[in-house]
Write a structure and sequence with these properties.
359 residues; mainly beta; Immunoglobulin-like; 2 domains; six-stranded mixed β-sheet; four-stranded antiparallel β-sheet; 4% helix; 37% strand
């Protein structure tokens, strides 16, 4: 049934004429946490200092409706961090089901979730710069007071909530994957949310509270890591057609849209059968040992590896012994802290690189 529903959402996309109803994908820095926010960790869950809360909006022309963010074969949908996503453990959920009264407690307003317009029950999510200033949430626990200039307007001035009746979220084919955005911070909350056969959708189609500006909030993500995404979006047109916008490799009537990529997301969890570059890494994510399988390997080759963290700092250099053809080389990564890394492998001076995650 889930596959049938996903097919129904996407079916007419390949028969519609490509328009340009999607004007932009807007990423708003909603909040940057500080040490004061950690005083409610016992209630809301451990929030690392410096965590950034991002809000993602689909900005559409008037008359268009947001229908889905999706992944299908050939068009993976991915939201990724180099660390983990933050979930509020008090009122958190995979979609914004808390009330505006609940929002006054601890760090509920920073929960990570997926949406089709809502930011809490009975309220649209809007850019802080577009907030109407009505009934701004004032936190009862005296947190969420940070005035970090990187987040623009402070939350206690404009909360990005506007009263209304947003459409509900329909989950298709991602019931297991979406659980990483539930109310837990136990290590299953990341680092990658991805699907090639699922979506979160608005069955009736969503419009923004201002139908001329027509901006629809589609996700809120909080993390202290390096954040990236690769999305595919389906819109309904004013003439009841559909348009499909993809992050890469557009075919037929799909529309390639650069704003559907943010940062650089690389596939993880690859198997030996997945040939992605000049070498293959497995297991990925890795615990203590990272294995490297070269393609077109030659027994006489000199092989070295450099590992960089997400800030570009070199954290390890190693010369790897190559004793024969078709050998799987290994490097010990046990001493690395959990997170996202880049490994550069040089074979006779020819370099190539890939990402891996250390658990």
């Amino acid at each position: 049934m889930k596959k049938l529903l996903l097919s129904a959402l996407l079916f007419t996309a390949f028969n519609s004429n490509a328009q340009q109803g999607l004007e932009n994908i807007i990423v708003e820095t909603y909040y940057i946490s500080d040490a004061n926010d950690t005083t409610v960790n016992a209630d809301g869950g451990v929030l690392p200092v410096g965590s950034v809360t991002y809000r993602i909006y689909a900005d559409m022309l008037p008359g268009y409706r947001f229908q889905a963010v999706y992944g299908i074969p050939g068009h993976e949908m991915r939201i990724e961090t180099s660390t983990l996503f933050f979930n509020n453990e008090d009122r958190g959920a995979t979609t914004p089901t808390y009330t505006k009264t609940h929002a006054k407690g601890n760090t509920v307003m920073l929960d990570s979730w997926l949406s089709v317009g809502a930011a809490c029950v009975g309220n649209y999510g809007v850019l802080k710069a577009n907030d109407d200033g009505v009934a701004t949430v004032i936190n009862d626990d005296n947190v969420l007071q940070s005035a970090n200039v990187g987040a623009g307007i402070p939350l206690n001035v404009e909360d990005g909530l506007m009263i209304g009746t947003p459409e509900p979220v329909t989950i298709v084919g991602i019931s297991t994957e979406i659980a990483m955005f539930d109310n837990q911070n136990d290590g299953t909350n990341g680092p990658v949310f991805a699907t090639s056969n699922g979506s979160w959708a608005s069955l009736l189609g969503s419009v923004g509270p201002d139908t001329v500006e027509n901006k629809v909030l589609i996700a809120q993500i909080t993390t202290d890591g390096t954040f990236c995404y690769k999305l595919n979006v389906q819109l309904g047109t004013p003439t009841l057609g559909v348009e499909n916008y993809v992050a890469d490799s557009a075919v037929a009537n799909e529309i390639l849209f650069a704003g559907l990529k943010y940062g650089t997301c690389y596939p993880v969890g690859i198997n030996e059968s997945d040939v992605k570059s000049d070498f293959l890494l497995f297991p990925n994510p890795a615990n203590d040992i990272l294995k490297i399988k070269l393609f077109n390997q030659n027994a006489a080759q000199e092989i070295s590896a450099r590992i960089y963290n997400v800030n570009g700092s070199l954290v390890r250099t190693e010369t790897i012994n190559n004793s024969g053809l078709n050998q799987v080389l290994t490097t010990n990564v046990a001493e690395l802290n959990p997170g996202l890394y880049i490994i550069e492998v040089a074979v006779d001076g020819v370099k190539s690189a890939s990402k891996f995650i250390k658990h």
